[in-house]
């Protein structure tokens, strides 16, 4: 779904809220920003401009931080629905609040993702990992781990250039029904050359009461009965000092 914005000049967004009218069937919403002159082929379907999941639909950025909305941009909504047996109509709304002046930092999103995995039938603690090596210094604002019904736990780590590993965020009890964005009170600085690592554990056993079918292997997919291994990171790039 495409929304053509009609602002007369570039804008900076201080806060954004995504609100489904039928949240019982909305699996999640990813909003991608398409600047003028770009086509849908230029979109990164993983990294978002704004997002909604159960428990996480509103985001307010601190002073000095914001999302850019260039004049003439389109907002492209990837809507994921999960049927519940009843015919349903949904009209999802997006609200934004603009800043009065351009912020110092532009907020961006990156993802640590693995789409090529198989969770064996009956596996109670299956581990999947994704990593990325940083090409530049960044300041991390927060983390948004995403799995489906078999998601059990999640962890973000940073591995320095010397090989030292530190835990950035540990979520021992991931809950698909209440997905949270974990935000720092003060941004975390990470040096260029470091490696970000995202690990999640999955319970595909009969001991998981939410498991649709513990007898089947599970792979990447958009629907709730499938799985995702997706660790979002919101960050900014610090200005270079002379």
**Helical segment tally?**
0
How far do the termini sit from each other? 44 Å
Give the overall shape, derived from the CA principal axes.
globular
- Total number of β-strand segments? 17
- Biggest β-sheet: count, sense, barrel? 5 strands, mixed
What is the succession of H and E elements?
A: EEEEEEEEEEEEEEEEE
How much of the sequence lies in strands comes to over 45%
Overall pLDDT confidence: 92
Oligomer: single chain
Assign a percent range to the helix content: under 10%
Alpha-carbon Rg, integer: 19 Å
Structural class comes to mainly beta
Uncertain spans: none
Summarize the structure.
Helices cover 0% and strands 46% of the residues. The protein has 242 residues and is mainly beta. The relative contact order is 0.22.
Word description of this protein:
The protein has 242 residues and is mainly beta. 0% of the residues lie in helices and 46% in strands. The chain has strands at residues 2-4, 11-19, 26-34, 50-52, 58-60, 65-69, 74-81, 93-98, 105-106, 108-113, 126-133, 138-146, 151-159, 165-171, 182-190, 195-202, 230-236. The strands form four sheets. Strands 2, 5, 6, 8 and 9 form a five-stranded mixed sheet that branches. Strands 1-7-3-4 form a four-stranded antiparallel sheet, with no helix packed on it. It is globular. It starts with a strand and ends in a 6-residue tail after the last strand.
